[in-house]
Amino acid sequence: MDGLSAFILAGGKSSRMGAEKGLIPFRGKPLIQHLIATLAELEIKPVIIGHHPEYHQFEISVIGDLIPDKGPMGGIFTALSHNVSSHALILSCDSPLIQSGTLKKLITMKSNSIVVGQREERINPFPGIYPTSILPQVKRCLEENKLKLQAFILEQAHQIIPLDQISSQPEAEFTNFNFPSDLLPWEEHKENK
């Protein structure tokens, strides 16, 4: 898509999952592979930001965090530093139920500000559209060790979209899997993916 590159964050420590999160099997394939397939429906070839050598099996670019151990802010910094487009669609590998139609709606809202979703009172930073122009602000936050992503988003020009405006199933599509037990209830719900 014009002016947009996609990045999947998979560089976390995965301590709660007990294994490399993006490679955990879900519905017959690794979590991250669901997102790669969804992006392929939009003709977008993502870059994985992660360090595990098994990510190379997906035959797409894999890059490590430029500044390790900085959480999602470090991932955003790495994505924007490698981005050759005006905007980055940034996703997290632990949300495999996102649908291509939902991403397409989010992408159409691309502007000069950060575009993220919100469910109830909580901002959902991923998936989100991040303009490459905010790279200096991200770098400054990392230098000052200000790693709270929600606070960062609110300090920038931003657009917050209620998730039910872009998704008919926000509870499913925007579920993050953090523990192995989180996967079980969704393993059977095939209609979501």
Automatic annotation (TrEMBL):
Entry binding sites for Mg(2+): D94
Residues annotated for GTP binding in this entry: L9, A10, G11, K21, D65, D94
Top-level division of the source organism's lineage: Bacteria
Catalytic activity from the UniProt record: Mo-molybdopterin + GTP + H(+) = Mo-molybdopterin guanine dinucleotide + diphosphate
InterPro entries listed in its UniProt record: MobA-like_NTP_Trfase (IPR025877), Molybde_CF_guanTrfase (IPR013482), Nucleotide-diphossugar_trans (IPR029044)
Domain MobA-like NTP transferase residue range list: 6-150
GO cellular component: cytoplasm
Keywords: Cytoplasm, GTP-binding, Magnesium, Metal-binding, Molybdenum cofactor biosynthesis, Nucleotide-binding, Nucleotidyltransferase, Transferase
Any GO MF annotation of the entry: molybdenum cofactor guanylyltransferase activity
Pfam family, one: NTP_transf_3
Biological process, per Gene Ontology: Mo-molybdopterin cofactor biosynthetic process
Job description of the protein: Transfers a GMP moiety from GTP to Mo-molybdopterin (Mo-MPT) cofactor (Moco or molybdenum cofactor) to form Mo-molybdopterin guanine dinucleotide (Mo-MGD) cofactor.
Family recorded in the similarity comment: Belongs to the MobA family.
Protein name (record): Probable molybdenum cofactor guanylyltransferase
Biological source species: Algoriphagus aquaeductus
